[in-house]
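pls ignore typos typing on phone
sulfopyruvate + seq
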Amino acid sequence: MEPLKYLKSVLDEEQYEKIERIKNTKLHEFLAKYIELCEPIKVFVATNSEDDELYIRNRAVVYGEERLLKMPGHTVHFDNYYDQARDKEHTYILTPHGEKLPYLNTKKRDEGLKEIHELLKGIMKGKELFVLFFSLGPKNSPFMIPAVQLTDSAYVAHSEFLLYRKAYDVFANTPNIDFLKFVHSAGELDERKTSKNIDKRRVMIDLEDEITYAVNTQYAGNTIGLKKPAFRLTINRATKEGWLSEHMFLMGVNGPNGRVSYFTGAFPSMCGKTSTCMLVGERLVGDDLSFIKIIDGEARAVNVEYGVFGIIQGVNKEDDPYIWEVLHKPYEIIFSNVLIHEGKPYWNGMGEEIPDSGENHSGKWWRGKKDAEGNEIPPSHKNARFTVRLSYFSNLDRDALDAPKGVKLSGMIFGGRDSDTWPPVCESFNWQHGVIMKGASIESETTAATLGKEGIRKFNIMSILDFMSVHLAVYIKNYLEFGKKLRNPPKIFAVNYFLKDEKGEYLNSKLDKKVWLKWMELRVHGDVEAIETPIGYLPKYPDLKRLFKEVLNKDYTKEDYEKQFMIRVPELLAKIERIRKIYSAMDNIPDELFQELDAEEKRLQEAREKYGDYISPFLFE
Ligand code: SPV
Ligand code: MN
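k done
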């Protein structure tokens, strides 16, 4: 049957009208295909209206996927105990003939599509399907990518209304607009309204038709199409079109005399990404995903999203005042996988007393409760989260968030969890050096954001490896080319908040990152000089001493500086060797990558001959 006719036959009149208003053949085909396949009992199409949004918000409660908490606006959602993070093992990039990608699982496209369509068959029986329209990036801008989400989870739909820009109008006003497509079903739910068939959990990414699928899961990192599923699609698009789709926050750093300079930052989960972009006194634009494009010869960046899906563990009044403030107001907030006691949310590391019982991701909870594997269950899950709109944040840079051409990007920051190799902050010599030796060389200890073991040092290029839907060679080449097209490329920095001394004590305190940011802000304008070392430019002691005093009112000693910025030659050389080994095993890696590794190795060896293994930064002055 003709798609629109089919839709007319299955949708009630009000919903059909909302679809009919959109003149888009591909959309009609897409909807007809998946409504027929998934067999929902009911379909709801959301426009941009407040009423439609409210309907979805209420459905989440009516269907039991969210429960109201004491504070108006607050709800809690639980994911299945075994569905608490992105499932990398069961996420597949579909490639034409099953071609392999480094690090990610792939499947032959037709086999993957067959498998997922079998899983989707009849999966929404008895459930309501939500049809949602959003935009990645600011609307009506060179960055905008329209997208359609189909989901049978009101929690997922509700989350997307908090996290993305509504774009029904874009579809209605632009016939046959091109768009990304996401199909999600939580599958059968158990009595707690969490996905039951976790063994059949699948996430599939079809780059060819730009559709992603997620079934038998609710965890937002798997299911919110516009977040990480879309990210795999936009990385692919960006490499084809010559721009950057990145796993980066976007923030403004306040410089002298009212100057604001914008930085992106890429850090693996739980390595300081949020705490950096939320630093007191600076300007938040986005906390997770950025698009970077060349406009008039300049690198310009936007936040892909409109809200925050943030880790709640460790959020406390002192360290995270902006988040704390938001979480304690009657705003629309979804808490997920926290502990609920008498209608109030509690989480690990909140700096307040946590009750001994309540309800959490494991169901009814009491202190000392163990799971089926014999592990003690903490009050909240390590990857418990909050979902809110950015507009609630008092540190938000509203103009930057909505700027159609984004903001001019002055610097890019790369960081990881590294106890013994990189100094706290270092500026690369140039774009190519930064891309290769900072971004493409990130290693980090694993965290709780994905399933699997924690605490193992892992390679994670640009902190984007989990999403690397194209071959690394293609990705790196695109980066190098991107820089060549810029009049004045952003400066690239590496930071390391986790450096330790020989006794295993951290060498920096949590807020020192603010000083590194201020230093980087001065550097992008050439306001301070730096020391040239084998690995890049390091801050000069007097500049840091002044900044520590100004920014943190702290006395920064020469001894601290020397310990923190010591060039650790054996560790740096070992790292180069690890990185070289990783890339040597791959095909088509650009020569520039190996040239940079060789050149830095040579610089380090020469320095070692002159000064020994551990070199004070003063020796390079
Ligand atoms: C991350 O892990 O990088 C996140 C959370 O931002 S998730 O949505 O699960 O990807
Ligand atoms: Mn992320």
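Residues 3-64+86-242 form a domain with the Phosphoenolpyruvate Carboxykinase; domain 1 fold (CATH 3.40.449.10). The chain has a mean pLDDT of 97. more later
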